[in-house]
């Protein structure tokens, strides 16, 4: 899997093998500057802060879809909003998952990251 893996969340611990984006600005900068192969989005990023929906809007506007995009947020309405925006606009090559990254995938990414060292 080519590219970096990005985990957008203000509170949850970042999984091994991922770059931690703690806010919308950091996440969008990573999408602009790097090839992102896996992206996992949270919706709520702190009181009064922009949400993961802003990242979804950026992805659609720029067409900078990662190969795999997961929505790990616990916000049901936030997940629905991001999915409804991303899905009809995604290219065929991109995969969108309406939920968190499966444990098997997280273990695989962590193992691959260890092997790079």
In short:
By secondary structure, this protein is α/β, with parallel strands linked by helices. It is built from four helices and five strands; from the N terminus they run E-E-H-E-H-E-H-E-H.
| Total discrete domains | 1
Low-confidence stretches: none
| Count of beta strands | 5
Q: Beta-strand percentage?
A: 15-25%
Mean pLDDT: 95
Compute the number of helices: 4
Assign the CATH superfamily: Response regulator
Architecture per CATH nomenclature, i.e. the level-2 architecture: 3-Layer(aba) Sandwich
**Rg, Å, rounded:** 13 Å
Largest sheet: 5 strands, parallel
The N- and C-terminal alpha carbons lie at a distance of 16 Å
Pfam families: cREC_REC (PF20274)
Protein name: Cell division protein FtsJ
InterPro entries: cREC_REC
Keywords: Cell cycle, Cell division
Polypeptide structure, described:
There is one protein chain. By secondary structure, this protein is α/β, with parallel strands linked by helices. It has one domain: Rossmann fold, CATH 3.40.50. It contains four helices and five strands. It has a five-stranded parallel beta sheet, with helices on one face. The radius of gyration is 13 Å and the shape is globular. The two termini are 16 Å apart. This is Cell division protein FtsJ. Keywords: Cell cycle, Cell division.
């Amino acid at each position: 899997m080519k590219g970096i893996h990005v985990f957008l969340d203000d509170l949850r611990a970042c999984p091994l093998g991922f770059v931690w984006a703690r806010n919308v600005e950091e996440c969008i900068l990573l999408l602009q500057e790097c090839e992102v192969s896996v992206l996992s989005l949270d919706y709520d990023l702190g009181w009064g802060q922009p949400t993961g929906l802003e990242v979804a809007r950026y992805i659609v506007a720029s067409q900078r879809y990662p190969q795999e995009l997961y929505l790990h947020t616990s916000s049901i309405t936030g997940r629905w909003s991001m999915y409804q925006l991303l899905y009809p606009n995604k290219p065929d090559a991109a995969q969108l998952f309406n939920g968190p990254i499966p444990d098997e995938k997280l273990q695989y990414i962590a193992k691959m990251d260890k092997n790079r060292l």
